[in-house]
Amino acid sequence: MSISLESSAPLGSRPRDGALFIGFIIVSLATADLLFACAYWRVLHGVPPWRIPQNIAAGLLGMRAFAGGGSMVALGVLLHYGIMAAMVGVYHAVARRVTMLIARPWLFGLLYGAVLFIVMNLIVLPLSAAPKTPVAPDWIASNIAVHVLIGWVIALSARRAIG
Questions:
Q1: Band of the pLDDT at 134, cuts 50, 70, 90?
Q2: Is the pLDDT reported for residue 148 higher than 80?
Q3: C-alpha–C-alpha distance, residues 76 and 141, integer Å
């Protein structure tokens, strides 16, 4: 049995490379999103960076997450990366069946980003145990922009991985 080391094969035909690429997208997007949130809340509102992952963990554990220290920060980071994996995984899975998502990534990435924002902010967060906070209009605008960027990266990554 011989194994071809030909690197010109399409990305989708090399499952290991495709999985690595998708993993890279998940880690990159989750890291960038978390860094953005930490920087935004630190610079504009003085919130310490570790509070952001604790707030994510609070989605499961409520106010106890803020007393848990480093373990709650780690849980929040893990949850954040898991959520991003789900966001990327859903689009990639659907794009394998609905080729229009691959053919028009700019349009469908924009729409997917909007859907992600709506789902996270109007369904997931209200149903979570995280404390309810006042609405900051500048955060909403920034958050919409970040979700659109995430949607575009996910759509373009699906195009590369699948198409």
A1: confident
A2: yes
A3: 23
Number of Cβ within 10 Å of residue 76's Cβ equals: 25
- Start-to-end Cα distance in the chain: 28
The widest CA-to-CA distance across the chain, in whole angstroms, is 63
- Nearest CA-CA partner of 155 in 117, 119, 103: 103
Rounded CA gap, 158 and 79, in Å? Answer: 22
pLDDT confidence of 16, banded at 50, 70, 90?
low
Phi-psi group of 14: left, alpha or beta (phi > 0 → left; psi -120 to 50 → alpha; rest → beta): beta
Give the other-Cβ count within 10 Å of 163's Cβ. Answer: 15
Mean pLDDT of the chain: 91
Overall residue count recorded for the chain in this entry: 163
Given a contact cutoff of 8 angstroms between Cβ atoms, the answer to whether 66 and 133 are in contact is no
- Say if residues 156 and 113 touch (Cβ distance below 8 Å): no
